[in-house]
Design brief:
InterPro entries: SQ_cyclase_C, SQ_cyclase_N, Squalene_cyclase, Terpene_synthase_CS, Terpenoid_cyclase/PrenylTrfase. The chain is mostly helical. It has helices at residues 12-15, 50-55, 72-84, 103-113, 120-132, 151-164, 171-183, 191-200, 231-246, 254-263, 292-308, 311-331, 339-353, 358-366, 387-400, 410-423, 454-468, 481-494, 536-550, 557-574, 589-601, 611-622, 635-639, 650-662, 668-681, 708-724, and strands at residues 26-30, 36-40, 371-374, 377-380, 630-632, 644-649, 695-697, 701-703. The protein has three domains: 5-70, no CATH class; 103-380, Glycosyltransferase; 403-574, Glycosyltransferase, CATH 1.50.10. A hairpin with a 5-residue loop joins strand 1 (26-30) and strand 2 (36-40).
Length: 725
Amino acid sequence: MPRNIKLVNPLPSEVLDLPATNKHHWLLHSEPSGSQYWSYYDNPPREQTPYEKYVLGLDPGTQTYDTPPASPDVAIDRALTYFAQFQQPNGMWSCQYGGPMFLIPGQVIALYATKSPIPKEWAIEMTRYLVNLAHPIDGGWGLHFTDKSTVFGTVLNYIALRILGLPASHPVMKKARHTMAKLGGPLKCPQWGKFWMCVLNVYSWDGMDPIPPEFWLLPYWLPIHPGRWWVHTRAVYLPMSYCYGARIAAPVDDLITELRTELYPDMVYDNIDFAKYKDALSSVDAYYPPTGVLKLANKFLSFWETYLMPKKLKEKALKEVKRQIDLEDLNSDYLDIGPVNNVMNFLISYYVEGPDSVSYKRHYERLANFNYMTREGMMMTGTDGVQVWDTSFTIQTIVGAGLAESEKFGPVVRNAYNFLKNAQFVSNAHPDSYREGRLGCWGFSTRTQGYTVSDCTAEALKAVIMIQSLDSFNKSESIDETLLNSAIDVLLSLQNVGRFAFGSFASYEPIRATPLMEYMNSATVFGNIMVEYPYVECTDSVVIGLCNFRRVSSYRSDEVNRAINNACQYILSAQRPDGSWVGAWAVCFTYAHMFATEALSNIGRTYESDDQVRKGCDFLVTQQMEDGGWGENFRACELCEYVPTAESHCVQTAWAMISLLYAQYPDKEPLEKAAKLLMDKQDRYGGWPYEEVEGVFNRTCTIEYPNYKFYFPVKALSMYRKAWL
């Protein structure tokens, strides 16, 4: 596993003396909507903020402390004082939501294939980032920045670095080519990697398994209709199928010719029979190998495409796919659901509508919303940010600590509340775009991105209700009651009440098709991606949000109560025999337990009154480490088994504490030890150190939530103080 790059000094790019921009010249801009982007200035128009300095690895210039905090009160005040200075002018908190190592290559390849300019500062800093994140031993790249080297990561990032200007003769590139060959070479790249190589014209579409656009013409009642798939999968499959159907490929030039030689050093590119390598896959990339069902389907689809498919049907399918792409763009003002389909839609806008089109120009502008400057260089975020999610939990933390009406933190909370008001959806998506309702709801990041997320809506709803319930709250600033009621309408519509995981909630939508569709997963590097799945954490959050809502409103009370009861039954049924809950969106058991016990505490189930809550607490306490903390490795998400780390981590310690405190765990000793650990680990600025990547998605890919280490320890300490001091 690569070393913790956050702690490496000097960075590899500095050792190699690679070009770098002046970190003092980067500024972060945040719009009222929450959209954010970094700009580089020869003569910056203002001083950098503490947050900009912090994320760039500079001294933030904030107050420091020479002695550890003497009490939880002191630790809480220091932490919130520090974190409040990171708040953006629009009321949100920003963060470097990074980890996946397949994002930069997609953007860079799309820019090159569309002959679009890559800003000089982007090229310099993306090069630094990729070099700094290379595996310290073999020089390759993995699926994510803490992964082993894979063909997928190594091939795509090698290509990206060549486009960005690093010569093939550079030691970084020589080392990467050696690892690439050792792992099996580009012919054994997974489907997503082969897709981008086809777009760049360094691999042939003949060597791709089918990505038929005709699926979009099937009757919607069929489970294989893409409109029934998980929203991220269908959003990516949509432009992929267009590129495949239209055989989009960049024109050959000198660099592409050079890359063909570098990628296949022992072969003549024009003589390669790419069709023979459709199913070729390196073992290091086979997280979820193709099933027999998928292989059989691919053979049938290849035969259909070659011998049976009418030309007019293909044209009709491509027309419908382009219509759906246009709707995705319009529903999100060209941000799209995330950076993967964003750059694919950008690519298609160039090849179909041309560089003078509104679509192409707006897409090009939007690329900056995913590019984020850090100490290690310019990375890409997993969405256009985490704004709503982070802001909701920060509000909850400050209100829960009893500080929301204080002179010091009251303005912080009011500013954050205004951001949530601006982030709430005030319209629905286009009715033909296979989307659920969103009016009154919240997404993960911004109003503009436009995708309702069940737990984000619920946690934002809780934060809003907490603020609107304060004695000092100005009722004239309340969110329109009809909008909040609309959010409840959507949440109730998202509950799974059919054959699949009754009572549960998934991420974006109810489960629309059988989980057996997973047999058709062609990505190989991700699991549980074909349809929506029930998630304990999402279900927990919705219970929490609905319970907070029913305390202040009688709107649809019978249905709200029924939804809560059914959801809690699902949460209890999801508990394992050993008392544990498995998380899906962060690492891992401690995270799931935090949400589960809060949800159950809202219906009166605590350690004293409920056997299952008691088992959950006992499971957590058995995992406590000698120093009083908890620590989990992200492999727990892959294995669905608790995998401890060598040392405890602040974030997971906070999660475990919060879980035990919501459950009203009766023994003070483990909580006292954990609280002492958090206070001892607080740094001289009032924050906590980065120790391990916090998040995960689709079981295999880690992703950062760097603000977790600010607000969750504060929440844990404030709950401990209230319960025991």
